[in-house]
Structures
1.
Amino acid sequence: MSNATDPDPSPPSSTREGEEAPSSAPRTISILWAMVPILTLVGTLATVILILPAYEPGFEGTGHLPLIISGAVAALIARAHGWRWPEIQGGVLRAIHLAMGAVLILIVIGMLMGTWLISGIVPALIDWGLMLLRPSYFLPASCAVCSIVSVVSGSSWSTAGTIGLALIGVGDVMGVPSPYTAGAVISGAYFGDKLSPMSDTTNLAPAMAGTDLFTHVRHMLWTTVPSWVISMTIYTFMGLNLEVQPMGGSVDEIHALIQAQFSPSWVHLLVPGITAVLVLRKMPALPVLLLATVLGGALAVFQGQPLGTTLTTTMSGFAPDTGNASVDELLARGGMMSMTSTILLILSAMFFGGVMECTGMLRTLALKILSLAQSTGSLIASTVFTSIGFNILAGDQYIAVVVPGRMYGPEYEARGLHPKNLSRALEDGGTITSPLIPWNTCGAYMSTTLGVATLAYLPFCFLNIINPIISIIYGYTGFSIAPKDPETSSGTPPT
């Protein structure tokens, strides 16, 4: 992933002046009490997303209030068990700190989208995509392109925020349903995020499990490559059977309109080209995206856009007036303010997840799952499901990798399993499913950047769905599960 933050959720060693000292009394929270905030979250989400919209037409529920309410319930339970508020607040602040990298990138991506739209970069990419791509092979091509870019960059977020944004526009003009396109983009983006040595989660998982980076990457090929091949096959069949209706007129009409309004030329390739070079040179994501935003704004001004209009677009988003309502709707996005709801959702999730993690309730739930794992297959399945659960409950994929990695490491060692089995399971459950959760930092980012609701694109993220299933099947069959001695492993991973 692209939002590099400190993944260590361990508590601070000291108390600030004026705060209450931590209680020394036993404060273990039972599994029954730990389940109460979970049930509260499920109940409130069902109320605002399913029940109220059925009774109040026009009401659109979100996860913001359910997460805050459930976090407050968790805090009350922790307080009743002896936890002091400064400790709880410290846990929440650490969780928010963990998500600040994601928040900063969200803000910059919103600005980048605005400048790349007003400067004509995105319209030019859409126009060229219309000339090069056809609906029959658009979905597998989108997945393949995003796979290559994400492997090179190591960032699913940068891939979706640049190439993915343009592909969404191309697909919309062609008449390809946007959830289909978003699913293909995210599948490709997370293929690279999971395998690239430059990805932070690809480095984090083996560090938590106790193995080295390239051993981890080679072992992941066993689950990731088959998942990618199956996904590409499904996208190919979908494309061959796709019935499309071009948006707002024929593709030729849209092409002519973009040519007239934005005059696409080689100049529009300069900023994406510079961005690609910096990514290839392994520059940090945030400064690269900031520079790309500035260059996009400079290009807009160079082409005659007023400076004030360009700055307003950076803040509030692009407001085109092409004379075609469908094209205007396609290009009307971006801006820092467009990320407000997503950022609030992430902060709400961090409040809930921070309380649950720092008070040990997530650990209690995970240990209960571990106690049920009697075989190697059930241990792998428990690791995958625990990482998915932490994605749901903690709202951040770093926690979904770090906490289960710390907890399950001794069990893998005790059972004579190579730590690369653990690191692979952490990624198969934690990294790959993070964009499927609406309030997870990754799900919120993908939904806002691509303009498609998380639950709308979820069924079409085939790689993200298939990968955990294959991982669990391998666990129960023993295929590619390596013992501690690497010489007794089951062979060489596919290439």
Note: The radius of gyration is 23 Å.
2.
Amino acid sequence: MPASLSNRVALVTGSGKRLGRAVAIGLAEQGTDVVIHYRSSRAEALDAVAEIEKLGRRSIALQADLAHISELPKLFQKVEASFGRLDILVNSAANFVQTEFAATTEKLWDESLDTNLKAVFFCCQAAAPLLKKSKGAIINFADIGGILGWPGFIPHSISKAGIIMLTRCLAKELAPEVRVNAIAPGTITMPGDPPQWEADFVKLAPLHRNGRPDDIVTAVSYLASAKFVTGQVLVVDGGRTL
């Protein structure tokens, strides 16, 4: 059986809203204390903290712009000062920049790669000393764009393919103390998302449904607790990549 997540400490990047928030709340429901990271969504982050505290778990909101690498050591110093440890790092913060090939500029390229790949590497680097002490886990967020490759989203797809290789490299680099895995979601729709997102995905997925936040929470919980799994990419896409 997977290990319990009770009384662990997790930091979930980009968890003030949407899928990151769902993951943070899901971990809290399993007994984990959670650090809510946000860049600009302060009100939403504080609301997530309040929701976690209602579940009887400890939580704080910490602000950092992950693209500014100099801010990352301070972020993890604050985690240690507040909780004394870190057991789980979930790198869910990302952007989804659409750009046609001929219209791709250096700025758009950097916007995707800096947030989706470079920041994840340096978050892992800054968190590693704490995670080694706790024999913890890192869960990175790729997506199926990093497997299939999407015209119109070339920098994004490259950034997520990079997450897959980064996960494999770090699984070797940080072993045996820290396990490093990734999730590659398919289309996960949230309340208020355009209905065509779901309709388009359902046509292509063998399970004939879109993904839901609970599907990703389940996957994160498994990878956070599976003691004999590292360097793997768990594709959660209803069979879309088949």
Note: The mean pLDDT is 94.
3.
Amino acid sequence: MDNLIGLGLYTPAEAGRLLHIPPAKISRWLRGHEIGGVHYAPLWTSQIDLEDGHTYLGFRDLMEARVVDKFIGLGMSAQRVRAAIALAREVLGDDRPLSTNRFRTDGRDIFLNVVEADEQGREREKLLNLFKRQYEFKQFIDPLLKTIGFDNRGAPLQWWPIGKRGHIVVDPNRAFGQPIVNETSVPTAVLDAAGRQEGVAAAARLYDVPPAAIKRAMQFESDLQPRASA
């Protein structure tokens, strides 16, 4: 792929570190796998294909994997999630529907948030149960969506992995999608390394950022380590 700007680029290991998901699981979702002679197709196709035989994720794939992990963690099978993705593609016309802001779950079924207009033109939000193909009134909100900024079409633009108050953002248009402190464009991994090697004050001068940015980066990277190695 000639132009990765605005797409983001992550290996399964990098994605797993950010999402706290085993990289092997992410690879299975994107490449498919075989168990007991039975082949399981990929859940979706990655945005990124560098034609080198390796698996990569774009920013929307990162968001897709985050939601898939949530659904499977609630006890849904990968096959059920795959069926939901296929049905949602049909309804939304989007190849990566799980990365949009249209999904909800109650832990048993997967719903698609839709807006319908009545005969008077009044719009009303409802939920389409993707498995029963029937509408149900909206009664819950997936907390995963609260940390994502969406465009007016419902596609993800930015992800705030520890919430906006944490000042850490993952934005495919900045630093190739690596996590950064919002007031800088320097990856948290770089600021963290500088802070540990040079000290907070010296690192802040070196990268011309506030000392608070160094501290936030160091805390964020530190918080990733135990979960990544668990």
Note: Residues 211-229 form the longest helix (19 residues).
